[in-house]
């Protein structure tokens, strides 16, 4: 087991992860496949361990944002199919082919670069999924005509295996499904147009976590599950009764110094907070350089002994302070070494990633993604520590 010497850690419940994947599996039609999106270090949860767990679950595909993320997984011994959802430049194509990494294809010059690849010794071909832009305005070919012409050319490239085609919904997490329906119809037109020319790609996919919950009938052949797998609903507007999700990540630390300070004692840089007389202040070994943003100053809370207490003063690079007057009692004051939860549950109290996101003016996706390599990941199964990853000590 890897060690870490600061009590700050992200606890990752492998049971919750499994339960979320099973919940999607149960809710989706049997023939619908599932891709687990482990990009951005698995939304902050740790790409390798999450990918291993998804692989053990029997996931059909893993999704990453760029080739380096796929290389990390292959380097860790992960053998499941991997789709790079973003751009792969020409100089990464040969490596992708040799390591069985599927690329997303939408550019003519990349098609030409595939044509120019030296043939693989054992005849391996580079697998690709064509990306179609149906209204996200990000990556992808526009419309049926452009896609059909591109696919026609791609099918003549001997070193290329066209395995699939996909699109991405821009507003699947909204209650109003009219834009998603429009995108689904546009995508359907592309599929039909290709079929009319005798082209049928084996794996057509469109849905993200939100569409997987609300409109699985518009998923086509596979749902690409990201945020939902981590137990967070994509938005307030999706139908939470359809799939029961459980948050996977908790952010925890401990008090490393506790003291009662005199009236008006300045707390942290800029002394933006002056303590009340005798206020009990706890110091936590976590700060903005861990991904606990300085922009949470004056807004964030922490759970101590099942009570929500405020962060006091400016959040520093490695540390921050909390006011402990509402937790503990004169007979049993909060001391050093007590558990502090910044995201997650403690007793009946909870701080959600959503709540932190609202304080930052962002979405929960960003909150978990911000947690970086300084924060060890402690993976738990059945309440017991199963794996510890501390990339600072062992990258
Ligand atoms: C192409 C693509 N598919 C699927 C996903 C997963 O999205 P979500 O986390 O909302 O399920 C993403 C993430 O942004 C994506 O970019």
TrEMBL record:
The modification N6-(pyridoxal phosphate)lysine is found at residue 39. It comes from the Bacteria. Signal peptide: none annotated. GO terms for molecular function: alanine racemase activity. Its EC number is 5.1.1.1. It catalyses: L-alanine = D-alanine. The active site is at residues 39, 269. Its cofactor is pyridoxal 5'-phosphate. InterPro entries: Ala_racemase, Ala_racemase/Decarboxylase_C, Ala_racemase_C, Ala_racemase_N, Ala_racemase_pyridoxalP-BS, PLP-binding_barrel. Keywords: Isomerase, Pyridoxal phosphate. Pfam families: Ala_racemase_C (PF00842), Ala_racemase_N (PF01168). Pathway: Amino-acid biosynthesis; D-alanine biosynthesis; D-alanine from L-alanine: step 1/1. SUPFAM superfamilies: Alanine racemase C-terminal domain-like (SSF50621), PLP-binding barrel (SSF51419). Gene3D superfamilies: Alanine racemase, Lyase, Ornithine Decarboxylase, Chain A, domain 1. Substrate binds at residues 138, 317. Residues 248-380 form the Alanine racemase C-terminal domain. It is an enzyme of class 5 (isomerase). PANTHER family: ALANINE RACEMASE, ALANINE RACEMASE, CATABOLIC-RELATED. NCBIfam families: alr. Belongs to the alanine racemase family. Catalyzes the interconversion of L-alanine and D-alanine. May also act on other amino acids. This is Alanine racemase. The gene is alr.
């Amino acid at each position: 087991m890897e060690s870490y010497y600061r009590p700050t850690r992200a606890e990752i419940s492998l049971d919750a992860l499994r339960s979320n994947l099973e919940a999607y599996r149960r809710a989706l039609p049997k023939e619908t496949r599932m891709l687990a999106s482990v990009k951005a270090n698995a939304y902050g949860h740790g790409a390798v361990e999450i990918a291993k767990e998804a692989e053990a679950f029997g996931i059909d595909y893993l999704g990453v944002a760029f080739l380096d993320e796929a290389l990390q997984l292959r380097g860790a011994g992960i053998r499941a199919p991997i789709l790079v959802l973003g751009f792969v430049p020409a100089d990464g194509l040969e490596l992708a082919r040799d390591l069985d990494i599927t690329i997303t294809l939408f550019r003519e010059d990349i098609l030409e670069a595939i044509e120019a690849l030296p043939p693989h010794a054992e005849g391996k071909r580079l697998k690709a999924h064509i990306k179609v832009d149906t209204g996200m305005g990000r990556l992808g070919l526009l419309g049926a005509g452009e896609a059909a012409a591109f696919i026609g050319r791609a099918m003549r490239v001997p070193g290329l295996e066209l395995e699939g085609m996909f699109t991405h919904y821009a507003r699947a997490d909204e209650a109003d499904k009219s834009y998603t329906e429009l995108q689904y119809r546009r995508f359907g037109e592309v599929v039909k147009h290709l079929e009319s020319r005798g082209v049928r790609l084996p794996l057509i996919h469109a849905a993200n976590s939100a569409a997987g919950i609300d409109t699985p009938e518009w998923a086509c052949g596979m749902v690409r599950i990201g945020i939902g797998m981590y137990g967070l609903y994509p938005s307030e507007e999706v139908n939470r009764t359809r799939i029961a999700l459980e948050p996977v990540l908790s952010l925890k630390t401990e008090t490393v110094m506790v003291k009662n300070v005199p009236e008006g004692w300045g707390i942290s840089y800029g002394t933006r907070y002056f303590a009340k007389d005798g206020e009990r202040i706890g110091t936590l070994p976590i700060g903005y350089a861990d991904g606990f943003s300085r922009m949470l100053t004056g807004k964030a809370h922490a759970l101590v002994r099942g009570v929500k207490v405020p962060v006091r003063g400016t959040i520093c690079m490695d540390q921050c302070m909390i006011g402990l007057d509402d937790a503990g009692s004169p007979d049993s004051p909060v001391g050093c070494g007590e558990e502090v939860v910044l995201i997650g549950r403690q007793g009946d109290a909870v701080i959600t990633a959503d709540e932190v996101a609202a304080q930052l003016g962002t979405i929960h996706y960003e909150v978990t993604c911000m947690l970086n390599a300084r924060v060890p990941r402690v993976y738990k199964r059945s309440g017991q520590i199963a794996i510890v990853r501390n990339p600072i000590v062992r990258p």
